[in-house]
């Protein structure tokens, strides 16, 4: 199928199949997204992150884990683009490998947090009554604690390590999603299309799954992208405190922590991972803003 | 005279409780004959939509009900309805922009009731339902925002008919539509009723629509039934109660003399 | 005096000619503009007061009020005109009244924008106005907030607010569509009295042909941005344009007895150049 005929298929007025209709919606959404240059920047950054993570074996010289004490604390230069750290490891290589860890953290947290938040939120919002009260009080408990403190507490119980850090972060992150899903569900609950579904005889589970969830999903996804920055920073914080990824894993937060003491004279050791975190957080934020404008053009500026 | 297919006795509906309790429907009794088109007329706040929703079983959890309701020979207690009920009694809503799920295609919207009731030959039924309301196959995979108000209302009607119901409850089905579109939809509803022998309960604030579509009607105000009459009386402008007469006069247009004579019936 | 008014919008899907060459004159009379959705009737009303949404281009050969040009007037002059000479009543009082200001405060504000007066005078005039629109307890309503009053009362408050600066013309865009039928007529009666007392002109925009025919003196029927018929209200049933006839015929009649409603068949020729 040529590019021109694909485009015609995507813009046709009367779609001939469910697949075509859905593709059309996605395509129109993409066109709207493309119009926002800042959002595109965010997309480019994140796409870059994914690309770097995928290509890591081919764009790095070493695996970033072997110490080379003869090479300690070299400043950025031709041989080592970002310099070397206190154990002589190439920082560029460590950053690249660390991108995989960043993605791993972010991806795993997302997979855990979105379903839990959604399910709790829509049940609370739709069913209401005592169920709502109980679920929301539980959510409030998790919401009340500062994220890093709670994560620290969980890791202290579970033991340090990347997997436990991810779990701890997930446990501290799900509550706002439940709130958002609940708010959407409350808004939709008395809509006429919900009433229509009830008149059809669709059961509560069916209504929640096919009617309520699709409408809550966009808000949750936007919130997720905006929260990514926070998730990365929490992981970095845990890493910084030595509670997350353990050495010699090149997790960016841990890299900052270990490089702390060299900030004055060998600034590149902690600064470069810091910049990496900054850029990726910014990327997710911009992407989230762009998505929000596509899903709900009336909100925001 | 056969038994009424919808028999309501002394229905009371209460929303909320305590100081803010709203006695929305007060001791309403009425009967709808099988195959009849029955109108429920009133101004806003009269309780007419609440009565319809009470029959449909949509007030669970939000209202307290008293009274007896019998539909198609089965007594209905509370607001839960059996699957069989949901197949035989359907509803068309007022707002063509709100009664279709914004993220579902027409195909999904129509297939859902058929799936819920485990009907066979899904594909065939969906296409046939679309044709019966005057929409061709090109509409099948569109989203609601790609349809006009009249087209959406046709989809709503198709959705209501796909399970082969006997009773269709219509909540102001044309109030949100342009006049010319309203005519088409009303004609469609009349034809479908004739072809399938349906029973209609039509809620409207528009007396002309009710006079045109219905054989009998009840006039409601402040939750009570003011009068039950035949449409013939409406057409001859001979209702018994002064409130009904006043509504009738108001429907005819601006007449200064008549307006000055309006009474406040609250 | 409106001649060849055009309101065009550029949208992602192409040029939308919301109003495409509308001309009419208004004297001290009630002029009704009738049309279905998309006919351009609301846009016409807004264009007169230059309240068209940004992105819309308004053009006309002439757009004058009482001899003065409205098309090229600057924003300062338009602010004087709006409310002072030409006022607009909109459809739903819920959306047009400020929910955080009391009714009295809003009406007073409308007054003092166009007339120099101290607080006490403004308050007196406001109460007078509330009485004039047949609100029975003006003091109580004065202190109330918009959400505390019923729809009919809200619309009467809007009328009071729009009348108090003593404009010469009122443009009413579906002012009673959100109201019950009996209240609708009572509100119109109030409006009618005030128009007559002050010798004002009214442009009544509505989709309800029967209502306009019984209330107004003259009717313009709009379709797809153009005026397809201009007729005296009393002569509506002799209307000649097929669209007007179609609209009249497809209404269900109270007398009933029609097997099927005649359906309006849209003749593409009505659209003119598109």
Question: Number of helical segments of chain C?
Answer: 10
- The overall number of domains of chain C is 1
Q: What's the helical proportion of residues of chain A?
A: over 70%
Beta percentage of chain A is under 5%
Give the overall silhouette of chain A: flat
Report the CATH C-level class of chain A.
Mainly Alpha
Instruction: Describe the largest sheet of chain C.
Output: 6 strands, mixed
Mean pLDDT across residues of chain C: 83
Low-confidence segments of chain C, given as residue ranges, are none
Q: What is the mean pLDDT of chain A?
A: 85
CATH superfamily of chain A: MetI-like
Corresponding CATH superfamily of chain C = P-loop containing nucleotide triphosphate hydrolases
At CATH level 3, the topology of chain C is Rossmann fold
Helicity level of chain C: 25-40%
Q: Strand portion of chain C, in percent?
A: 15-25%
CATH architecture identity of chain C: 3-Layer(aba) Sandwich
Please identify the structural class of chain A as seen in this structure.
mainly alpha
Give the end-to-end Cα distance of chain A, rounded to a whole number of Å. Answer: 39 Å
Question: What would you say about this model in short?
Answer:
With 301 residues, chain A is an all-alpha fold. Helix content of chain A is 74%, strand content 0%.
Task: Describe the model.
- The complex is a heterotrimer of chains A (301), B (266) and C (274).
- Chain A is an all-alpha fold.
- Helices cover 74% and strands 0% of the residues of chain A.
- Chain A has a single domain, classed as MetI-like (MetI-like fold).
- The longest helix of chain A is centred in the middle third of the chain and has 37 residues, at 91-127.
- Chain A is flat and about 75 Å long.
- Chain B has 266 residues and is an alpha/beta fold.
- Chain B has a single domain, classed as 3-Layer(aba) Sandwich (Rossmann fold).
- Helix content of chain B is 36%, strand content 25%.
- In chain B, α3 packs across α4 (122-132), α3 (106-116) runs parallel beside α5 and α5 (149-161) packs parallel to α6 (179-196).
- The longest helix of chain B is centred in the C-terminal third of the chain and has 18 residues, at 179-196.
- Chain C has helices spanning 41-48, 75-84, 93-96, 103-114, 119-132, 138-143, 151-163, 181-198, 209-215, 242-249; strands at 2-11, 14-24, 30-34, 56-59, 62-65, 68-69, 86-89, 169-173, 201-206, 218-223, 226-232.
- Chain C has one domain (2-234): Rossmann fold (3-Layer(aba) Sandwich).
- Chain C is 36% helix and 23% strand.
- In chain C, the strands form two sheets. Chain C has a six-stranded mixed beta sheet, sandwiched between helices. In chain C, strands 1, 2, 4, 5 and 6 form a five-stranded antiparallel beta sheet that branches.
- At the B-C interface, α6, α7, α8, α9 and α10 of B face α8 and α9 of C.
């Amino acid at each position: 199928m040529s590019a021109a005929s694909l485009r015609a298929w995507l813009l046709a007025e009367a779609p001939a199949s469910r697949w075509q209709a859905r593709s059309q919606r996605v395509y129109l959404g993409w066109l709207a997204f493309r119009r926002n240059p800042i959002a595109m920047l965010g997309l480019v950054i994140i796409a870059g992150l994914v690309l770097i993570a995928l290509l890591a074996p081919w764009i790095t010289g070493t695996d970033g884990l072997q110490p080379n004490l003869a090479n300690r604390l070299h400043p950025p230069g031709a041989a080592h683009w970002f310099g070397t750290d206190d154990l002589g490891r190439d920082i560029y290589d460590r950053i690249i490998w660390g991108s995989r860890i960043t993605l791993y953290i972010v991806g795993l947290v997302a997979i855990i947090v979105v379903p839990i938040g959604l399910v709790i939120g829509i049940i609370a919002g739709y069913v209401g009554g005592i169920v709502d009260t109980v679920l929301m009080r539980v959510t409030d408990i998790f919401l009340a604690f500062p994220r890093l403190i709670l994560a620290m507490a969980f890791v202290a119980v579970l033991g340090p390590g990347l997997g436990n850090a991810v779990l701890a972060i997930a446990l501290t992150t799900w509550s706002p999603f439940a709130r958002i899903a609940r708010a959407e569900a409350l808004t939709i609950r008395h809509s006429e299309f919900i009433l229509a579904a009830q008149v059809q005889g669709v059961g509560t589970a069916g209504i929640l799954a096919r009617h309520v969830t699709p409408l809550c999903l966009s808000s949750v996804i936007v919130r997720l992208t905006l929260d990514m920055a926070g998730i990365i920073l929490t992981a970095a914080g845990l890493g910084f405190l030595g509670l997350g990824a353990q050495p010699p894993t090149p997790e960016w937060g841990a890299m900052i922590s270990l490089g702390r003491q060299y900030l004055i004279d060998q600034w590149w050791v902690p600064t470069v991972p810091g910049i990496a975190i900054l850029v990726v957080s910014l990327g997710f934020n911009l992407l989230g803003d762009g998505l929000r404008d596509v899903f709900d053009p009336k909100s925001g500026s | 005279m056969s038994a009424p297919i919808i028999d309501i006795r002394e229905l009371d509906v209460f929303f909320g409780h305590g100081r803010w309790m709203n006695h929305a429907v007060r001791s309403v009794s009425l009967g709808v004959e099988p195959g009849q088109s029955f109108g429920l007329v009133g101004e806003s706040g009269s309780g007419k939509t609440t009565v319809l929703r009470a029959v449909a079983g949509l007030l669970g959890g939000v209202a307290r009900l008293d009274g007896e309701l019998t539909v198609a020979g089965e007594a209905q207690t509370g607001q839960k309805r059996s699957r069989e009920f949901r197949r035989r009694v359907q509803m068309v809503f007022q707002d063509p922009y709100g009664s279709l799920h914004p993220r579902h295609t027409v195909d999904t919207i129509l297939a859902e009731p058929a799936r819920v009731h485990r009907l066979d030959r899904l594909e065939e039924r969906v296409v046939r339902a679309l044709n019966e309301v005057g929409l061709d196959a090109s509409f099948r995979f569109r989203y609601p925002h790609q349809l006009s108000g009249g087209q959406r209302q046709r989809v709503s009607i198709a959705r209501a008919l796909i399970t082969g119901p006997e009773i269709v409850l219509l909540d102001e089905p044309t109030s949100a539509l342009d006049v010319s579109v309203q005519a088409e939809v009303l004609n469609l509803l009349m034809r479908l009723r004739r072809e399938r022998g349906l029973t209609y309960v039509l809620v409207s604030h528009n007396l002309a629509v009710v006079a045109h579509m219905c054989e009998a009607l009840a006039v409601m105000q402040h939750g009570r039934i003011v009068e039950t009459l035949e449409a013939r009386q409406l057409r001859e402008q001979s209702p018994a109660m002064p409130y009904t007469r006043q509504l009738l006069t108001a429907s005819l247009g601006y007449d200064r003399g008549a307006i000055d004579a309006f009474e406040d019936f609250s | 005096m409106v001649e060849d008014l055009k309101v065009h919008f550029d949208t992602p899907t192409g040029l939308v000619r919301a109003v495409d060459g509308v001309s009419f004159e208004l004297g001290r009379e009630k002029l009704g503009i009738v049309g279905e959705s998309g006919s351009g009737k609301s846009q016409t009303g807004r264009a007169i007061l230059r309240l068209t949404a940004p992105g819309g281009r308004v053009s006309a050969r002439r757009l004058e009020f009482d001899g003065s040009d409205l098309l090229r007037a600057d924003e300062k002059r338009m602010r004087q005109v709006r409310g002072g000479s030409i006022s607009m009543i909109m459809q739903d009082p819920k959306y047009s009244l400020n929910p955080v200001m009391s009714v009295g405060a809003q009406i007073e504000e409308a007054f003092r924008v166009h007339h120099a007066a101290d607080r006490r005078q403004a308050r007196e005039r406001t109460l007078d106005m509330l009485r004039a629109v047949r609100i029975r307890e003006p003091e109580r309503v004065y202190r109330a907030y918009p959400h505390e009053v019923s729809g009919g009362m809200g619309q009467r408050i809007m009328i009071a607010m729009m009348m108090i600066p003593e404009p010469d013309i009122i443009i009413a865009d579906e002012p009673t569509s959100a109201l019950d039928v009996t209240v609708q007529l009572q509100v119109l009666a109030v409006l009618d009295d005030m128009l007559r007392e002050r010798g004002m002109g009214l442009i009544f925009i509505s989709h309800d042909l029967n209502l306009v025919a019984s209330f107004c003196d003259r009717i313009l029927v709009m379709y797809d941005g153009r005026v397809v018929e201009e007729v005296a209200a009393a002569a509506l049933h002799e209307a000649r344009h097929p669209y007007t006839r179609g609209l009249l015929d497809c209404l269900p009649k109270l007398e009933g007895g029609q097997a099927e409603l005649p359906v309006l068949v849209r003749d593409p020729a009505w659209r003119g150049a598109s």
